[in-house]
Each structure stands twice: as structure tokens, then as C-alpha cells.
Amino acid sequence: DGGITQSPKYLFRKEGQNVTLSCEQNLNHDAMYWYRQDPGQGLRLIYYSQIVNDFQKGDIAEGYSVSREKKESFPLTVTSAQKNPTAFYLCASSSWDRGSPLHFGNGTRLTVT
Amino acid sequence: QKEVEQDPGPLSVPEGAIVSLNCTYSNSAFQYFMWYRQYSRKGPELLMYTYSSGNKEDGRFTAQVDKSSKYISLFIRDSQPSDSATYLCAMTGSGYSTLTFGKGTMLLVSP
Known about the structure:
The structure holds two protein chains of two kinds.
Chain A (H helix, E strand, L loop, with lengths): L3 E4 L2 E4 L5 E7 L5 E8 L3 E10 L2 E4 L6 E3 L9 E3 L8 E8 L8 E2 L3 E5 L1
Parallel strand pairs in A: 2-11
Antiparallel strand pairs in A: 1-3, 3-8, 4-5, 4-9, 5-6, 7-8, 9-10, 9-11
Chain B lengths: L3 E2 L5 E4 L4 E7 L4 E9 L6 E7 L2 E5 L2 E6 L4 E6 L8 E9 L6 E2 L3 E6 L1
Parallel strand pairs in B: 2-11
Antiparallel strand pairs in B: 1-3, 3-8, 4-5, 4-9, 6-7, 7-8, 9-10, 9-11
């Protein structure tokens, strides 16, 4: 079955540590995205990538970094510079066509204490 | 003014009711409109997709777009407890751009 796999489902880290969230897709989509979801805030775009080896900042990129070395993979690193890292993180993919809908993974809940 | 406005709810209805969920938007360039359903602790799943104005029906779900009023709706007929979820609207223009999401409306359908 084609889809997006995010791992792990739950992640716990101590403050000051960097942590990397995994996202893999087998939909053959060119574009991939990372969103952060907080209660009452909706989905906020962190980074997106239209093609391998290229990515763009979204609305809240500070304290995050990404890489896109393979079409299937778009890992997100939450650095110690991110002031409020505890959140639900969603990865998505789409074809890079006009109006293409996003397909989402089931998210990673990150808790930093 | 936010680009996309959506009442957060919660909207509570009895099983079997007709549900109406709505979003308003300010950007007249939006051409593609989507509705996503998100269950608790899961990722959003695409429910309905429409281009420009008009209606689209899929089973118990109907999506309606009124571009002149900048208003989109999702109707759910014969609502079921399994419809209890957060519903997010999303939209984008005719160029190559990312989606703009509403903040979501929580729906609770009681048996």
C-alpha cells in the first residue's frame, strides 16, 4: 500500500538535545512537507521541498532543519534552538502540480522536558 | 483578517443529524478547495476535493464552493458517531503554491 510513514509515533527528549523525526513516502511524490500542529493553532508549515536537494522555509522554520537527499525521505531535525518544541509533527507529500492535495502521515508526538 | 476562517467548535449533534461545516476566505485567487478529516492523534485524511465553484457529492458528504461569497461548506448527511473528528478546510490558488489551512472544526456526534 502506498503511503507516508512517520516514525516514531511518540518521542521524548530532554531539553537541549537535538532530535530527528523520520518521514518516508512511497507515493512517488516530488514534494514533501513538514507541519507542526498545536491545540488551537491549526497546521503551521515548517519546511517544504519540491525536489531532491532543494527545500524552502515555511512560516515557522526557526529552530528546525531538514534535508532531502532522496525523493522518498524528508527528515526533520528539531534543534535545541527551538523554544517550544513539544508538539505534534505531521509530514505530508504531494505531486508538485497546481492544486495538488496533500497526503499526510500519522504524525509524531514530540515531548521535550 | 486571517486568510481562512473556520469556527473551532466543538459542534455537537445527535446521530442522524445533517451537519454543516463552513470556511470563509479572503484571497480571491483561491481555486482549489479541500476538506480533510482528522481523528485524534492521527494525520488528516483527504475527504473532498473541488475545483472552482459548484457542488461535489460523495456518499453522505457534499462539498459546496461559492466563490462569489468566498465561502465553502461541507455537509454530512445521516451523521454517525464515527464522523466525530476535526474537519479542516484547505485551499490554494492556480499557481504552484502551498495549501492554506483553516484551524479546523471539532465535530461530536452522539449516539
